[in-house]
Amino acid sequence: MLTKRIIPCLDVKDGRTVKGVNFLELRDAGDPVELAERYAAEGADELVFLDISATLEGRKTLVEMVKAVAAAVHIPFTVGGGIGAVSDVRVMLDAGADKVAINSAAVRDPGLVNEISAEFGSQCLVVAIDTKHVDGKDIVHTHGGTKPTTLETVAWSKEVCERGAGEILLTSMDHDGTKNGFALDITSRVSNAISIPVIASGGGGNDVHFAEILRNGIADAALAASIFHYKEVEIADLKSSLLQNNIPVRI
Fold first, then answer.
1. Tens of pLDDT along 108-134?
2. Is 31 one of the catalytic residues?
3. Would you state the pLDDT for residue 11?
């Protein structure tokens, strides 16, 4: 049986790790490279870095950060934010990232998913989907969750899977930062609709939440931020609890 993955997420703005609630009210959470080293030592399976400002200056900062993280840790990590072309992907992979995540760019140009997958392989490509429940539908949002689209989340997940995405990073905007539990319904529906792994994001607050989302194939991995940044949940304790609940994880 494949082990389930625990993935700390680091939202990066101007070279610092930040965290908010429902994508708002950001506060500083520390140096991303130092946090990466800490998480690798604590037993994280992977890391995700998202440049939430993705300005030109921020991109330069991000490349240097990627190089520093690659030199400091030996677990896989994904980088996203502002990636809009095959050339951007090459820069990040050359700097040391194992995977890239795209969101807004994929919505703007779905063919980019095909291009990146063809050039680098699907194993390098994560499509991030920010989803919010609006008028009875689960709707894809872009630009850091600020712009709703006309795309429904399950249908979009199926499309990017068919186009060559290697994984889906599914973030529930309704649950983000609340620590009240992951979005079981939409995560389950996406997972059942596609053949690639789904990383659940948004709402993880304790070991029970992680067990709920990882049990019965609802998600292949669970991602969280503030509970790890501020040591509200220790990765080793979380994994021990999951094992006790018969959920396979790497120790």
1. 999 999 999 999 999 999 999 999 999
2. no
3. 86
Euclidean distance between CA atoms 79 and 99, whole angstroms:
6
Give the active site residue among 45, 51, 130, 138: 130
With beta carbons less than 8 A apart as the criterion, state whether 123 and 99 touch.
yes
pLDDT digits (tens, 9 = 90+) for 16-33: 776 555 444 555 567 889
State the Cα–Cα distance between residues 194 and 182, nearest whole angstrom.
19
**DSSP code of residue 124:** G
94 in active site? no
CA-nearest of 225, 170, 160, 226 to 194 is 160
DSSP for 180-225?
S---HHHHHHHHHH-SS-EEEES---SHHHHHHHHGGGS-SEEEES
Residue 59 in this model has a pLDDT that exceeds 70: no
Question: Comparing C-alpha atoms, which of 154, 115, 116 is closest to residue 133?
Answer: 154
Q: Tell me how far apart the alpha carbons of residues 8 and 194 are, in angstroms, rounded to a whole number.
A: 24
User: What is the token pair recorded at 192?
Assistant: 């059942």
Would you tell me how many other CB atoms lie within 10 Å of the CB of residue 87?
Answer: 8
